[in-house]
Amino acid sequence: MKKNNKPVREYYTIDLVHIFKTLWQRIWLIVLAGIIAAGIGFSVSAFLIKPEYSSSIMLYVNNSSFSLGNTSFSISSSEITAAQSLVKTYGEILNNRSTLERVIEEADVPYSYKQLSKKIQSGQSNNTEIMRVDVTTNDPYEAAKIANCIAEVLPVRISEIIDGASMEVVDAAVPNLEKVSPSITQYTAVGLILGVLLSALAIAVGALMDDTIHDEEYILQTYDYPILAKVPDLLGSDKKKYGYYSAKKKTSKNS
Questions:
Q1: For 50-171, CATH number?
Q2: Which residue in 127, 125, 150, 129 sits closest to 55, CA to CA?
């Protein structure tokens, strides 16, 4: 007879009921992990991360005729798409090295060109001809100072580059003492969620990897073998008890 050398495949089943029971038994640990992680998120956002403040200016893009080199442009107030292109063009001029170096010199701030460029954002305001410039730093007064300096430098730079173009200041910057980041609520919530999820995942993985035989039900579900005998109350025994039987103290007979 030929021997059957086919490899034996082992199949593993995931008992979801067992996992949920284990999670419920360890619910106190999951809650505790969530509270600790939320506390860490709160502490990091409140004490370790420097708060940032933002100030903004509003500039009106003048839609008069202007020329760029040998090409002339005429933009009417109804041509919103052209106004959007102007705002993008002015934004590129704002982030130009020469413009920002002039802003740094005028505002007397300790930033390099690249550092200041990362702190400035510009764009169109609500699909209008208004250009909005936001400056974000760790000091609310410094952010307002830089924004107002941009309001002075940028129109001059644009008039130097584009003939006939101009900008008007609609709204100057004021110090905003309300921080824009970090969000303590967001950091705390993220910490809580991560703590709960990671602790639940660790408990679930531990339950899946646990191959300890806790009761006869595990043997019946895992192996196709009959149970011949059972040691009663094995885990509940103490020094003086053995299963369901207890040891009696020996007493001496009175002579």
A1: 3.30.70.1130
A2: 150
